[in-house]
Structure formats: structure tokens, C-alpha cells
Batch of 2 targets.
Target 1
Amino acid sequence: MIELKNVHKAFGKNTVLKGINLKVNKGEVVVILGPSGSGKTTLLRCINFLESADDGELIIGDTKVDFKNATSKEILAVRRRTAMVFQNYNLFNNMNAIENVMEGLVTGRKMPIGRAREIAKQALDKVGLKDKYEAYPLQLSGGQQQRVGIARAIALNPDVILFDEPTSALDPELVGEVLSVMQAVAKEGITMIVVTHEMSFAMDIAQHIIFMADGNIVEEGSPKDIFTNPKEKRTKQFLERILPRWNYSI
Amino acid sequence: MGSLFDIRLVFEYFPLIFSRFPITLLIVVVAIGAGLVLGLFIALVRMRKVLLLNQFAILYVSFVRGTPIIVQLFIIYYGFPLLLEQVGIDITQWEKIYFVLVTYGLNNAAFMSEIIRSAISSVPDGQREAAYSVGLSRWQALRRVILPQAFLNAFPVFGTRVVNTFESTSLAFTLGILDMVGQAQAIGSRTYHELEGYVVLAIIFIAISMILEKLFVHAEKRFIQQRR
């Protein structure tokens, strides 16, 4: 479904991705874990070319792109098969909620406005914002903005939605509403790649966990494998630090 | 001849001078319009660092910003026909107003490019990234997301620019066109009552500048209200 082969990326002398290979099946929810600076976000951003990887290959559906020689046409094609939910929401500040959701459909995909509006309404209803169609980003709370962000992504009906730390910028009491919307999206069978620090989401919702450190995939497997029986030392260290409560149960 | 200053002449000259307002307005509208289009182009060339064009743009902008408009007017008036002659276009029969329009348009393009450039870079990167992520092309992202926000950011400076342009049209008469200032001069030299004409000009310029400023403040408030 989505496959990354041997992805390399460096910022100047700082090598961030050192040959990543990754395969995500259709309908799968993949969570990428790892300490900060491990390259998770960069990897995610390489998939839709917000960063241009130096080397490697991307296969998405029947589209195959070589990172090194990607043309702007290919990049646009990949972007129209993917969607992204950002850490800082990044809603279009000059548009209200429904216009935000419609933009990719109407301008990007040339869909008639009437149909786009219907799809946008459905998407906003799904994330529980039926009464906020006309609200501008500045009138919404962080949690609501992020839900619009998710609606904007699902409305595009993409092959995959990329979530880049979608709850990291939120007040703690708003995290729940966004996670439950993400859970609902996951249940619909939409392919998701999620970079997050929400361990409960990773444990309960993910089908596959990828643990990254220092630009490499250190370990991957089912949540059960990773959380209860990690094989690599680096993974154990990380989990001990992030799940301190496990120390008490000894 | 009578006194040096005759208030009745102010009233008498007013309609004569104000009747030339459309010419002044034409210069402002063309200058702003051309300035916006050409300025956007220059801004994009500079932001994307297009080879050669970028260097040319830098030179051009610093030339325009570093020389008085009256110098630019005469350089265009005498130089432009020579330049176009090289490519086989004869504009020696052009009316003077066209040279004025070209000068003010080119002049404004340089100033506008700087306004547009800083306005575009004031829009957060995340906005552009979000636009790309929903499948907008570079141009679509610019047109639908970046420019509308940049426009709002630039609006106060843009307003000042329009008022400045309006006031700088007062030098267009030096090429011999009969705008408001040209008319005041002509009347002055015909009647030897120079002062009254300039008083009329002062009143017109101050009134229109104030109206423009008020309009911009009002428009800005409305734009911002819409989104909050």
C-alpha cells in the first residue's frame, strides 16, 4: 500500500534519516515512537514532500516516486493521495471551518462547490463540529481547531493520513476529544501513520508500532510485542523513561 | 492686480483645478495597479532567488528607492524611447501622460515589491505547508492562502503607499502634463496670482489624503472583524 525504501535525509552535516524501510498496509494504523530528534517527524514530512528526502523511493498505491529525481508533478500527485494533520493545526487563517475543509477539494481537485460543501459538512459532523461550520480558526479552541484539521484531512479521502504529533500543542484537558476523534477515524479503516507521545493511543489503537532512534528504525512490531516484550535495549530505555509507572510494579 | 492674496480667487480657481483631478486619479490608479502586479512579480523573483532576474531586481529596487521620482520621470521621458528604438518600437509620438504612467508604475512596483515581500514572509510557514498537504500547487497555495493573509498584514503599509503615491503625483507636471498641479501653475502664470492656486492644491491634497486614510482604516477594521 505505502512503502518507503532506503530513505535518507540530512540537514547539512546532520544526518536525520539513515536508510528507513517501511511498509504500511491498507487500513493499518501505524504509530511511530521515539525520543525527540530521532527523525520521526522528518520521516513523516518526507512522505508528502514537505521535506525532500535526499535518497530513497516511495511507493503509494500504484505511484512510484524516486525521492532524488521527483518532479513537481509527481510531488503534487503524491500530495493529492495523502493528507496531514499538524502539531499546530495550521488551519488556513483566512478561511472559516467549512472553507478550510473544502479548499483541497475545490481548488486542489476541482470538485464542484456544492458537492465539496456536502463532503465538508459530513466531515465536520463526524468530528463533532456541526455547529461550527462558519467559525474562523481564531474563534475555536485548540481542540476544535485540531478537529477541523482532522476533518480537512478525512474530507480528501486520501490513501493515508499523516498525523504529526496532533495532540502535543493542546491543553491536557483537550487531548481527549482529539484522541477520540482519531480513534473514530481509525475504526473507519483509514490508513494512518501517527507520530505521537500518547502511549495510550499507541497501545489501544495502533496495529503496528515503529520505534525510531537516531535516524533508524530500531524495532517494530505489534503494540503488545513492543510494550510488554521489547527486544532492543534502546527501546527498553525509552519505554522505561516514558512509562515510569512500570517501575513500581516490580 | 490688487492684493497678493485674494480669497475669492480661491473659490474661482477651485473648480478649474479640481476638474483636473481625474488625471491625477488616473496616475494613482495605474501606478497602484501596475505596482501591485509588477511588484508581486519582483517580490516572487526575489523570494525564489531566480537566477539573474533576482540580481536585476535588487539593482532595480535600490535604484528606484535611491533616486527622486523627478529624476526617474526625465530618465524615462528621454531614455525610454531610445531603449525601445533598439527593439524597433517607435514611441516618440507618445503623449506625455504615457511616460508619466510608465514612470509612476515602475516606481511603485519597486516600493510595492518590498511591501509584498515582507508581507508574504510574515505569513507562517505552516500555512504554506498545510496548503501543500491538501494538494494545492505552489501557485494555488500562493493565491488562495498566502496572498490573502499577506494582503491583510500589508494593508496598513499599503494604505500609506497609496497616499504617498497620490502626493507624489504632484511632480508629474514637470513633464508638462495638465494635472491639478499643472493647471494651478498655468493659472498662476497667466494671472500672476500664484498663491491662490497652491492654496487650492493644499486643500484638495489634504482633503483627499484624509479621505483615503479614513477609507483604509475603515476597510482594515472590516477585514479583521470578518475573521474574529
Target 2
Amino acid sequence: MNFAEKTINALADLYQKNSCTQKEVLESLATAVKSKDRDSRQIHAYIAPETAQPRHRKADKSSKLWGIPIAVKDNICVEREEITCASKILKGFISPYNATVIDKLLDAGAVIYGRTNMDEFAFGSSCETSTYGPTRNPRDPECVPGGSSGGSAASVADHTAVASLGSDTGGSIRQPAAFCGVVGMKPTYGRVSRYGLIAFASSLDQIGPITKDVRDSASLLSVIAGYDPKDSTSADIPVPDYTALLGKSIKGFKIGIPKEYVEGIDNPELRKKLVEEPKKIFESLGASVETVSLPHTRYAVSVYYIVAPSEASSNLERFDGVRFGYREAGASTLLDLYEKSRGTGFGAEAKRRIILGTYSLSSGYYDAYYLKAMKVRTKIKQDFDQAFKKVDLLLTPTAPGGAFKLGEKSKNPLEMYLSDIYTISANLAGVPALSIPGGLIGEKKMPLGLQLVGKPFDEATLYQAAYAFEQATDFHRQLGNVK
Amino acid sequence: MSDLNLKHIARLARLHFKEDELKVFEAQVAGILKLVDELKEVNVDGVEPTSHPLDIKNVFREDEVKPSLPIEEFLKQSPRSRGRFFEVPKVIEDK
């Protein structure tokens, strides 16, 4: 019996009925990880699975996540655990403290188990830029799992994890969740503390859950959300029980499909599966679906590839070879030490982003690039404000298609960046967005992701709508997420 | 971006590049900058910049002494330390 095939909620039921012990669950999980993660398919969702150790804290058995193992992306700090952002420059770094989300999980009785692979510093959409090598998609090992939280999504899809945490700066939870056929939530900016998340772009980053179904996502977010005095950008707004509205009717919900997101989808099959069929399903559930406009959508990628690298170039200044991480031997001056340690320690994509960001912020270009991008960001945010005056939530594809092949886009950074066109805007506007399995495509029945975007701090509505869709379609069962 | 001086930017970013690496990057970065040039067509007259999605204010707290992690914990992470210090190549010239 592989208990990692269970959902959080199914496993909690088993514990409650005393049908299994925590020891049995953890042993079966360790066996699943060790036997499946490095088998002939070479999924590699985990970094160093052979050294994974469960981390517990004493908690009451009635705690919300008692005995539930959670896998964690390699950019979220776990005390006494190596954390590297899948980068050579941080190899060997042992975190001296827990991220707030980790403390919250441990307090709720969860067990932290395993570090999941990612694009280096979360720079990527395919999980191919990790210093440990790529992660593959369990639905088709020829394909990428998406990125940057590729390992977190692949482990859940492959049943080597019950659930996991990822982080999302421009789609890094939602796009891999879509490619791997699982559920990924990027909460409202400020909903979850970023303390202990190694910063990529501080005005965009959010931690969120990746799970086998919608109910698990709601359960996990209910635990990790909330104000944290250690993160002054976390919001002091009460956290509802996100499972409370699951199963309630969505009759009368107003759903908007942004025309700018779907007018370019020429492939008739994709159009049918990502737009027409989901629309019909939501209508059959009593929601009204109308077309809305987010006129500045076409500029989102440009704004993002100025704002995110600018913030990243600043955040990554700290990796200088002096206080932690990698130092190149033989440097004769301090400048030489910085340049060589960073030049060798960072991979190509990290360097590309640092260069882009440094350029956008540099004297003479700041107004034309960074300042301009921040102003267009305001326009993008206003588009959402306007749309949410008319509708309760937005329905879009999560990605332009299903998972692409390994190596297909890694030679051309621009093409890779464009795979995030549907997810980036939610980060720029700070609004919550959830990706759920929305259909299957092709002979291999590869998953397609549907994205629901909500008003700030209205994750509950997203979950209510997503749950109704999930129950009406059962893609999560067809994909084997729930057996 | 004809005036893209990558060597200068790399110096500002404290990044060492090999010559051939620099050439590949120059073309890629120029391609990305060409894309983002489309922002020029957006009229943003009178629009305030958004540096942050939430309406946040400066957060103050009491200046209280609280226990923190021991210095040794952090020194252990350094590739080179001596005593209570991080060790780096000499930065002060001899007289």
C-alpha cells in the first residue's frame, strides 16, 4: 500500500478511524520516493531523495494536518535542512531556521518530508535549469513537468507525495500544476507569509499548495495563510476556513472569460477543451459566463520581464561568496572574488535575469524600462479592478497548451518566457489564481489546466467554483489523482 | 538596443563572463529588450507606478532586544571565516 496515493483528506480519515499509523504512512512514503523517483522514467521530482528525513513537531492528534507528509520546494527554509534553490551558488547551505509556513505546518501536525526540484532560483517554466538536472513529467517522461515548481507538481502527480508546497512569481505553481494534471493555488499577494522563502521578486512571490484535488488545496491553504509579524507585506486579514464553501451551489455566479486570453487560440481542439467545454460546464452548474476585456494583457509579459528581473537582480546581490554558499578559489581581490564566485555559481538563466534587471535599473535606462513597466503594471491592475466590477471570477486557460518536450524551448529564452502569458498578470495585479485539471488532450491524454482568477483575498470563491467544476467533470479521477 | 554595453552591465552586476558566453548573451538580451520595447506604445500620462500590488504602509515595531541565533551558526555557513569574522581578500592598500 502506497499511502502517498491518498489525498490529505482521505489520509486524515484513515488516521481518524485508526486504520493506519503515522509510522506506516511515512515508511510507505519513503519506499515510494526511493523506488519510483529514480526508476527508469527518471522523474527526479526530489533532490537527494536518499537523504530525506521526516521532520515532526509534537502535536495533538486532532490537529488539522496530523501525520500528513508535505514535500517542500527547495527555496523554502526548513531548519537544519540543506536549501539551495537548485543552484550551485547555495550548495551546502543549511538553513538555521524554519520559514513561517513550515512552522505553521509543523504546528498543525504535518510532517515535512523531501525537497523538491525546481528551476534555479525559480527562473524558468520547465524545471530544466536546476543544477541537479531536469525533472520529468510523470504523465509523459519525454515532457517537462513545467516550472519552476516542477518537482512539487511532479511528486504529487506521481504519488511520491501526498501534497507539496511551491512558490509562484509568474506562474510557477499554476503552470506545473497544469502540465502535471494536479491542483495549484497562487494565493493573493500577502495572504501567505514569505518569511523563509528565498526571495526572487519580492512584489510578486507567493507560496502556495500543490495538491491532488481542490479540497486538499483548500485544507492546506487554511493552515499556511495568515498574518506574520516577520513579513511586513503579509496581510492582517482573518483567514477563513477555505473548505467551508465546498459543495455549495455556484448558481448565479458571474464568470468572465477575458477575450484577450482566448482570441489567439487557433487550434480547434485546444479551443474546445480550454474555452468552449469549460464554459458549458460552468453554465450547466448555474453560473453565467460572459466575455470581458483586460485590454493591457498583451503587455504583461514585457512588464513582467522588466519588473521580475529588476527585483531579482537586487535580491540576488546577497549571493557574493562571502557569507554563505559557493566561493571561487584563487581570487586575488574582493571584486574578483565577487565576480568569479557569482560568474561560476549562477547558471545561465540566473545570469541572464540579473543582467536584464541590472540593465533596467541602471542609470539612463531606469525611466524608460523600470519606471515605465511599473506604470503599465498599474494599468494591468486597473484592468482587473474593472473586470471584477462586472464578474465574480475569471476563467482562462492556465497555459497555451499541454506540457512541451524536454529541450523544446530551452534554447530560446523568449519562447520560454511566452509560455507564462496567462499566469503572469495575476502576480502583477496581486490577485489569487488557481489551476485545476480542465481536460485531457492527445493520445497520451496529457492534462490541460484551467485557471480561475479571483478578487483579492477571495480565495474561498475560487475554491467553491473549482470544487463544483471538479465534481462535475472528474478529470482528477481520470488522471488517477484520486483512486 | 544598439548601445547595449553588456561588459559594463556585467561589471555593475558583479558577474564574470567568458568572452564567448558574452556574445550569446548579447544576442539573447537584445532580443528580450526588443520585445519589451513594445511598452513604448502604452500611454501612461498621469499614471502612478505600482511597485507593490497591495496598498502597504511602512510598518513600525518596538525596538526591543530579543534572542537571536548565535553568531557561530552564521559563521559556519561561510566558505571562509576566522574568529568572529568573514574572511575576504585584503581590501585596504598598504601605506
